[in-house]
Design goal:
carboxylic acid transmembrane transporter activity, globular, Growth Hormone, Chain: A, about 75% helix, 20 helices, mainly alpha, MFS_trans_sf, 3-stranded antiparallel β-sheet, MFS_sugar_transport-like, two-stranded antiparallel ribbon, 2 domains
């Protein structure tokens, strides 16, 4: 049995969700910017020892991996503490952390200092990746959660496009230090977030802060339901964070979701790193090969937004399976000698199935777990997947080092996409328990008070829930 504590106020709910989406997406634009800008400035650091000191290609590659390692550690750390500290506090701290990290990196005077600061910046980047989806999922209207999460996480590929564009325009007049100073721009989001992003009422409720949760839900316009009795596995209610992920309720799903993210990020970083080089091997000049990279990212953004609207109407799981399969087909078609228009269309669809699928995955995992495990679940998805992000560029490099061509690289990436589709298919279906309560709360009604609670019968709850398939 569950109790409706606060009913939805749709207008105020949309306003609150809009502010949360603006803050989270803005932060992730610069998250993507940070992870891409290093590739933009690396030739400068390699060719000019006066910048940081002598730098060989192997050291340059290692410096690039420091930020990725920081993201891995930051995401997993966020998962360990996020469900204890709360969404709002962690969002404010992580945005401030990586913004200051970018600013301090701009003034690095040695290779060692640069590497350390890249790692420290990565900690904040990983935390933002993990907490953004968890926060958005708890403020988005119940029937638009996947869309809102897609908007938020589309900031990552959009940031990659921003970094590439600004690198072309501003690298020469501003230098690499100027590009890193631009990366500190999200600091302006912190005071806005302080006033516009409330703490999650659901999280407050799970921490026993009932009166504060009710007051916050009323101000935010979000529905609030005491749905603890809807969860059949009591251990999932009692445990929080990663401990909850290890319970029988979540264990199998967590494994498959981790490998889903592994495949998605392997494709994302493998293609982002090697696509221009592969297309140059097919005879395209530098500008033409970079155009493929921009189309890949553009396809990801558009495809993720369209796919998320479909996922909100039906279910994210079959959409993710389908987009992974789409990526496998289009990457295979890229090996044929076809007119340039067809190749552009195929790489745009591959963007939908690679970067776009990863965006959809963040929305899926953000709504799959309940509040007590949500931050940890998103952190696991972002953190474990980051291993694929580290491996992806190495796979491309290994293929090149043994003398294989672009066709073989596309075949390998297509195989990874099929692996991702299989992992998505194997994720167990489960009732979206919180949506069950939210749908009830969203029904037109007078806002309930703590002493005026409307109980839901078990039959009502079962009818309101739907499979997260």
């Amino acid at each position: 049995m569950s109790h409706t504590l606060v009913s939805a106020q749709p207008a105020q709910e949309r306003k609150t969700a809009g502010w949360v989406a603006f803050i989270a997406c803005g932060a992730l634009v610069f998250d993507g910017y940070d992870l891409t800008v290093y590739g933009t400035i690396m030739p400068t650091l390699l060719n000019d020892p006066s910048q940081l000191g002598a730098l060989d290609p192997s050291t340059a590659g290692l410096l690039g991996s420091y930020a990725m390692l920081g993201v891995l550690v930051g995401a997993l750390t966020c998962g360990a503490v996020g469900d204890w500290l709360g969404r709002r506090r962690l969002l404010l701290v992580s945005i401030s952390w990586f913004s200051l990290g970018m600013l301090f990196t701009a003034f690095a005077s040695s290779v060692m200092a640069f590497g350390i600061l890249r790692f420290l910046s990565g900690l904040g980047l990983g935390a933002v990746l993990a907490v953004a989806g968890a926060t958005m999922a708890e403020f988005a209207p119940a029937n638009k959660r996947n869309l809102y999460n897609a908007i938020v996480y589309s900031g990552v590929p959009a940031g990659g496009v921003l970094a590439a564009g600004l690198g072309i325009i501003l690298l020469e007049p501003l230098g690499w230090r100027g590009l890193f100073i631009i990366g500190a721009a999200p600091l302006v989001l912190v005071p806005i977030a302080f006033f516009k992003v409330p703490e999650s009422p659901r999280w407050l409720l799970t921490r026993g802060r009932r009166e504060e949760a009710i007051a916050t839900a009323r101000r935010a316009g979000t529905p609030l339901v005491d749905d603890s009795q809807l969860v059949t596995d009591s251990a999932s209610v009692e445990r929080t964070g990663f401990a909850a992920l290890l319970t029988p309720r979540w264990r199998i799903a967590t494994i498959f979701l981790g490998f889903l993210s592994f495949a998605g990020l392997l494709l994302t970083y493998g293609l982002s790193t090697w696509l221009p080089e592969i297309m140059q091997g097919y005879g395209y000049d530098t500008s033409g090969s970079l155009a493929f990279l921009l189309i890949l990212n553009g396809g990801a953004v558009i495809g993720a937004l369209i796919g998320s609207k479909i996922a909100d109407r039906f279910s994210p799981r079959p959409i993710i399976v389908s987009t992974f399969v789409l990526a496998a087909i289009t990457l295979t078609l890229m090996t044929f000698q076809l007119p340039i228009a067809f190749l552009f269309a195929f790489i745009a669809m591959a963007g939908v199935g690679t970067l776009g699928t990863q965006v959809l995955g963040y929305g899926y995992v953000s709504t799959y777990y309940t509040t007590n495990a949500r931050s940890a679940g998103v952190a696991w998805f972002a953190g474990f997947g980051r291993i694929g992000g580290v491996i992806g560029p190495f796979i491309g490099g290994f293929i090149a080092s043994i003398g294989l061509g672009g066709a073989q690289a596309f075949y390998v990436f297509a195989g990874v996409a099929l692996f991702g589709a299989l992992m998505a298919y194997l994720v167990p279906r489960q009732p979206d328990l919180e949506t069950a309560g939210t749908d009830q709360a969203a029904a037109p009604a007078t806002t309930a008070t703590p002493t005026d609670q409307t109980p839901l019968t078990p039959n009502d709850a079962a009818a309101a829930s739907h499979p997260q398939s």
